[in-house]
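Quick one, T. Sequence first:
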Amino acid sequence: MLKLYNTTSRSVEKFKPIQPKRASIYSCGPTVYSRQHIGNMRKGIFDDILRRTLRFNGYSTYSVTNITDVGHLVSDADDGEDKMETGASANNTSAQEIAQTFTTLWKEDLAKLNVLPDNHYPKATDYIKEQINLIKRLEKKGFTYIIKDGVYFDSAKFPEYGDFANINVEGLDAGSRVSIGEKKAPTDFALWKFSPEPGQRQQEWDSPWGVGFPGWHSECVVMSDTLLHAPFDIHTGGKEHISIHHTNEIAQFKADREVDMANYWLHGYHLTVDKKKMSKSAGTTYILDDIINKGYNPLAFRLLMLMAHYRSDTDFSWTAMDQAQKSLTRLNDFVTRVSVQPHQKNAEISLLLKKFRKQFRLKLNNDLDTPQALAEVFSLIKNIHTMIDADSPIPRRHILKTLIWTDRILGLNLVPDPRKESSHTESITPEVTILLTERQKARDKKDFATSDQLRDAIADHGYTVKDTSEGQLISKNR
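Structure tokens:
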């Protein structure tokens, strides 16, 4: 039974999808005016673990992550420059070009972290008409007003406004949230911003209220509804979205449709660096390239993120990366060691594997508790190492199959994907694919003794492997 923490109720709840065995997910994505830092990458890993866990539990998933390429101002006070306009100016290019560049780099970084792709990545600029139509409907229902810089949502007309984030709206001091300016209340927010002088911005559109651009908070409402047909199952974001961005999404949607937008709201927590907030001036706003350029495997960063619960702030440091890299090496070395063992039955290990699977699933299904799930993995490894050291027989195939099963969630490439076989290999089983991969690692290290052991293990499966100038050539014995 999968249980998830729902921000709406502030409790862990049993997951009950709207449609049987199908989960619909909307995730707040990046504003693509610059490279995404490792805190953003942590959010991507959290979303990935959620999708993998749902599939692990037999649900099909349809997931959408938006691309914000207009309307996200540098201040929550609905003033300052649009981040896209600022980024384009800083890079001496167009907003459209910078959006495409940084979207591509973001997706490449996620792929390096073995984050599975979403089904759809809608862009805010492709949904301008839908956002205008939403504002029209809210205006007709009396939820908007106009001041000199734009059209605003009147939060006083929506009594439930503070419920989601537990905001005391009446007692809220304007200066504690945002500068109020001409707004009626500090909780009011921009639906449509007027261009100060039409023609100066790169991205602006005609509207019934004047030339301008949409506010940040409307895009997720229309895109999630268009693509997932709200109400949908799960909406994710960072915990910083709770009090403003998601509160504003909920207010617009419910004011418009009079139903809930999503049934479960999940929020990933923050990543600090050396126990401080990331800082550009201090040079600690790291991107994934900074990690890779120091010689770390990007999957070591993924492992480091899995070692902390998504609902807890965690700290990044190079010392922590060293430990994560060692832990990843420990996992890979275990795969290699098991791979060279002869396959023999062992009732004790078979029982151990059965208990492990049960505990791994229980920990994971308890609100995506990856730290506890990983603890089960390392405990299993320790026990099997002890048995190998004692010359106990090892059910190699069963152990490797369990690792394949586990890595469906962890995504650490502990076992290779048999669907990514090279063109010069026959169709082979996942276990033989593992042996081939480990053998190539051994040959790269010039560890020919291990290479020979792995060749013999491959032969036990009925295959012959030969080394050629194009790599390992495998053929099934007839």
